[in-house]
Amino acid sequence: xxxxxxxxxxxxxxxxxxxxxxxxxxxxxxxxxxxxxxxxxxxxxxxxxxxxxxxxxxxxxxxxxxxxxxxxxxxxxxxxxxxxxxxxxxxxxxxxxxxxxxxxxxxxxxxxxxxxxxxxxxxxxxxxxxxxxxxxxxxxxxxxxxxxxxxxxxxxxxxxxxxxxxxxxxxxxxxxxxxxxxxxxxxxxxxxxxxxxxxxxxxxxxxxxxxxxxxxxxxxxxxxxxxxxxxxxxxxxxxxxxxxxxxxxxxxxxxxxxxxxxxxxxxxxxxxxxxxxxxxxxxxxxxxxxxxxxxxxxxxxxxxxxxxxxxxxxxxxxxxxxxxxxxxxxxxxxxxxxxxxxxxxxxxxxxxxxxxxxxx
Length: 360
Hints:
Elements: H1 18-25, H2 29-45, E1 50-56, H3 65-75, E2 81-84, H4 86-92, E3 102-103, H5 110-115, E4 118-121, E5 124-127, H6 128-141, E6 150-151, H7 153-171, H8 178-185, E7 189-190, H9 198-208, E8 214-215, H10 217-233, E9 237-243, H11 246-253, H12 255-262, E10 272-277, H13 291-296, E11 308-312, H14 315-329, H15 342-354
Parallel strand pairs: 1-2, 1-9, 2-7, 6-8, 9-10, 10-11
Antiparallel strand pairs: 3-5, 4-5
Helix pairs in contact: 2-14, 3-8, 3-14, 7-8, 10-12, 10-15
């Protein structure tokens, strides 16, 4: 009988790298799940034939994780496409416009903050003017001609990323937003609930004033499905790395039921599933649903369940560790530039759907 890996602890010494810490000292419980996640990413997911989609929920970019951890992964070709809450994309552009966010204690006087027009996100503070001026920037930019039609969120974010990146250059900033980095790398960025953020609120205000700018959610459903279909149809694999849960998690996983159940195209599910979450399973919510449960919906390939991991920890702990581990262990991958291929992938899915009938 095999008991598995022997727990053979050694003292931690100075000069330890992140990968050494993870591989040799994350022994059990969620530390072990984080180790397994890092190793699965490095050893299997980062192969050339694997397409990796990442989801972001929770207030991650206000902490600085966009520039510190996610942008290096985008630049290095480790992330191929993204689904994020609109809030993460909105708050990541504050620093791109030259504004500042500050670290504080979570135990503050919120009434005093309100009276002084200061916004709090747990232990992060910034002036209310940051929001007002960021809103003004968005409204000015989105009156440009390229925004004057209904479009999918990937196109919306690509246009916005170009303006944000130019503003960073004009201001001479070292800082780079996630949107700007994705624009340059051709990484499509989707928002599953585009109206549920300040970006969506500003677009709604422009529409109210007579602008033609707007979202096309059906385009997002088809484009994200086309990305996954193409990855699998070419003989490759699809991987999902989920930070948090919520709508972005469902949106990336529903691509497989869309292929199988709605379009009637034979498929088995995503090949690799890694989630970092603090959500409980027993409440029945999607955020806490396990890979095994997702398998019953056709979202995860049942043959790949051994390559499915849930790590119950804070994303702000896991993301920097995962990034450092990958940068140590895996050389950069060629950029897939999926944004530039959207029309081709869409047409490919359209032709495949026309050849099949939805499952009765």
